[in-house]
């Protein structure tokens, strides 16, 4: 025990061991101060096993050592060995040992035994021993007395496969017998301060080879109790277990006799004397422990949560409150302002007796889970100042009407930057339906506006051919560009912007100005008709939502229109899934309004169109509608006969 581990911080510091419920262990805690802190002040502190006080550690001086041992059957999958600061010095520990035992050994009514005596009877050795001589690492102390005589053998003692206690051969090779062969072998136990139950394990083996005598026969007695006679086998271990009750203040004595038929004195090789340990407090319900440990793990909580969450009550975990039940249950969980992120964990549903839950002032996301409504004892639910979204489950709202206080209204807001909102009323679904209806109505209005525009324009299709020719003459006079100039503008049609129903659009430069040049690709007759319609229309229409006509080309079958170029692309690209631009609903509505405004502007102009010309005009407008958004147009929006 040359090293120690001290715990200068916190009132309770624990070793948390994940084991298996129902298993039995020998647990040993050892202490030697050794003046490790150079204060020369031996501390005093408490040692807890789970929620129960195991012992008080108090050493006589710096060089003194002390060990406390207990045989304990696990009541859950979690074992806590805790050092508690009682204000009399810093707790420390030199060694903590756990050794698994067979469940067929050391059984007790309470599940715990404090073994205060384990003796190698008749041994004359100076020091005790443990592992490797003992497979269970039990510590055996040599014991001899003046009224005893030693019996010994040089041969190993066979414990056999049927003896689960496996007494060590080193202890079994020696035995004690009374000097007076006619006397008993006695063990005075003294008196106890309170009523106690003693668990006594006696290990016997015949160490003398008997040729003519009958086998040694023995009887064990304790106060008024007397066992049945039993005999010993040569070099084979036998273990006898006895349960004795010792009343407060009563002197106890264990005696071993030879039967009247036996000619040999009684012997004893080894003995273990244990007292039943009353651990009355139960650990926190395992379901709650697993849940709170998982929550701690998920959120990476740095709180000083050690040992049993609910016990002892003076060292309750921060943020928790527990019931007085057996076992205790977590009834209150306060994780407010704990830096929590992510969704509300499902483990909270395991706190079946939870009454108060405070998760406020964190950065929790996702929706309010339905499982919270399954907590039938829940009285207060505080979720304010998070980033939750969606709606509170209807069942929780019903619970609030029956006494549950929902504290979440402060963070129910809508943010265009993407912050989620939380709706806390039964009208959430109705509101959602209204939103859907609103979108449907707006979409219908948009279709209706286009339809009305078409009908309105059809009623005014009396534009004469002479009118078109007048505009055509104007174009020839003011905006004509030769085909060779078109080649120069487009650098021999180097860059294609897109293809429409009647031609291909190329990028070009007219001086320092970027332009879009659409060259007609159909037969001269059909292309010329389309060409006439576009030129006549665009020369008459001037609107902020329509791009401007800059020039035209008409040389034989080489016909083209030169438009203002919109550098940011078309509406199809803008609305595609791959677009990096995210439009708000306000911007989307503005696009619809601007497109409708452009359509309406064209329909208000005098002159008639055939249906195909009208569709072509709509296609032209659709290509060049400019929404109220910097440098975004409908250029290239209609490809391969697509329609807006």
Automatic annotation (TrEMBL):
Q: Which Gene3D superfamilies does the entry mention?
A: Ribonuclease Inhibitor, Transferase(Phosphotransferase) domain 1
Q: Which PROSITE patterns match?
A: LRR, PROTEIN_KINASE_ATP, PROTEIN_KINASE_DOM
Specify the protein name. Answer: non-specific serine/threonine protein kinase
Could you read off the lineage of the organism from its UniProt record?
Eukaryota, Viridiplantae, Streptophyta, Embryophyta, Tracheophyta
Q: Give the source's domain of life in one word.
A: Eukaryota
Q: Which GO terms describe its cellular component?
A: membrane
Q: Where is the Protein kinase domain?
A: 491-644
Catalytic activity of the protein = L-threonyl-[protein] + ATP = O-phospho-L-threonyl-[protein] + ADP + H(+); L-seryl-[protein] + ATP = O-phospho-L-seryl-[protein] + ADP + H(+)
Q: Where are the transmembrane segments?
A: 436-456
């Amino acid at each position: 025990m040359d090293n120690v581990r001290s715990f200068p911080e916190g009132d309770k510091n624990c070793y948390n061991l994940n084991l298996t419920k129902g298993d039995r262990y020998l647990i040993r805690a050892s202490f030697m101060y050794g003046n490790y802190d150079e204060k020369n002040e031996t501390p005093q502190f408490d040692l807890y096993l789970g929620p129960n006080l195991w012992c008080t550690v108090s050493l006589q001086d710096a060089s003194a050592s002390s060990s406390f041992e207990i045989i304990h059957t696990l009541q859950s999958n979690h074992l806590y060995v805790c050092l508690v600061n009682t204000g009399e010095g810093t707790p420390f520990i030199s060694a903590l040992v756990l050794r698994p035992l067979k469940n067929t050994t050391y059984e007790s009514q309470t599940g715990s035994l404090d073994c205060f005596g384990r003796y190698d009877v008749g041994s004359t050795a100076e020091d005790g021993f443990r592992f490797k001589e003992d497979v269970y690492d039990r510590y055996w102390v040599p014991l001899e007395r003046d009224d005893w005589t030693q019996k010994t053998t040089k041969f190993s003692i066979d414990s056999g496969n049927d003896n689960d206690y496996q007494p060590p051969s080193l202890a079994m090779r020696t035995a004690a017998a009374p000097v007076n062969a006619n006397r008993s072998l006695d063990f005075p136990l003294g008196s106890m301060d309170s009523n106690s139950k003693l668990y006594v394990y006696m290990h016997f083996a015949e160490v003398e080879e008997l040729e003519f005598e009958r086998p040694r026969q023995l009887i064990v007695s304790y106060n008024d109790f007397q066992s049945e006679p039993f005999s010993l086998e040569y070099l084979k271990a036998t273990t006898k277990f006895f349960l004795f009750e010792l009343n407060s203040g009563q002197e106890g004595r264990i005696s071993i006799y030879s039967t009247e038929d036996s000619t040999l004195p009684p012997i004893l090789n080894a003995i273990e004397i244990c007292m039943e340990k009353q651990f009355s407090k139960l650990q926190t319900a395992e379901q709650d422990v697993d849940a709170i440990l998982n929550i701690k793990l998920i959120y990476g909580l740095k709180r000083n949560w050690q040992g049993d969450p609910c016990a002892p009550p003076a060292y309750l975990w921060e943020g928790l409150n527990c019931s007085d039940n057996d076992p205790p249950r977590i009834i209150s969980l306060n994780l407010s302002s704990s830096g929590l992120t992510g969704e509300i964990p499902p483990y909270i549903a395991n706190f079946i007796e939870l009454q108060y839950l405070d998760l406020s002032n964190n950065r929790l996301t996702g929706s309010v889970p339905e499982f919270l409504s399954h907590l039938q004892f829940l009285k207060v639910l505080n979720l304010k100042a998070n980033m939750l979204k969606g709606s509170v489950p209807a069942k929780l709202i019903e619970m609030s009407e029956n006494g549950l206080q929902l504290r979440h209204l402060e963070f129910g807001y809508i943010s265009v930057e993407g912050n989620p909102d939380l709706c806390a009323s039964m009208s959430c679904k109705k509101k959602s339906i209204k939103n859907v209806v609103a979108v449907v109505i707006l979409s219908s209005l948009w279709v209706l506006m286009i339809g009305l525009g078409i009908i309105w324009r059809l009623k005014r299709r009396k534009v004469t051919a002479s009118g078109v020719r007048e505009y055509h003459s104007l174009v020839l006079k003011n905006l004509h560009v030769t085909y060779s100039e078109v080649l120069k503008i487009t650098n021999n049609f180097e860059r294609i912007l897109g293809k429409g129903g009647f031609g291909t659009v190329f990028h070009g430069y007219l001086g320092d100005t970027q332009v879009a040049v659409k060259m007609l690709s159909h037969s001269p007759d059909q292309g010329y008709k389309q060409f006439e319609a576009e030129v006549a229309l665009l020369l008459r229409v001037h609107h902020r939502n329509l791009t401007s006509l800059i020039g035209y080309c008409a040389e034989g079958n080489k016909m083209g229109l030169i438009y203002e170029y919109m550098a940011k692309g078309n509406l199809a690209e803008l609305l595609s899934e791959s677009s990096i631009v995210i439009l708000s609903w306000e911007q989307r509505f503005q696009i619809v309004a601007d497109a409708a405004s452009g359509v309406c502007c064209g329909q208000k102009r005098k002159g008639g169109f055939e249906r195909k010309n009208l569709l072509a005009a709509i296609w032209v407008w659709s290509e060049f509608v400019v929404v109220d958004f910097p440098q975004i147009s409908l250029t290239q929006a209609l490809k391969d006969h697509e329609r807006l």
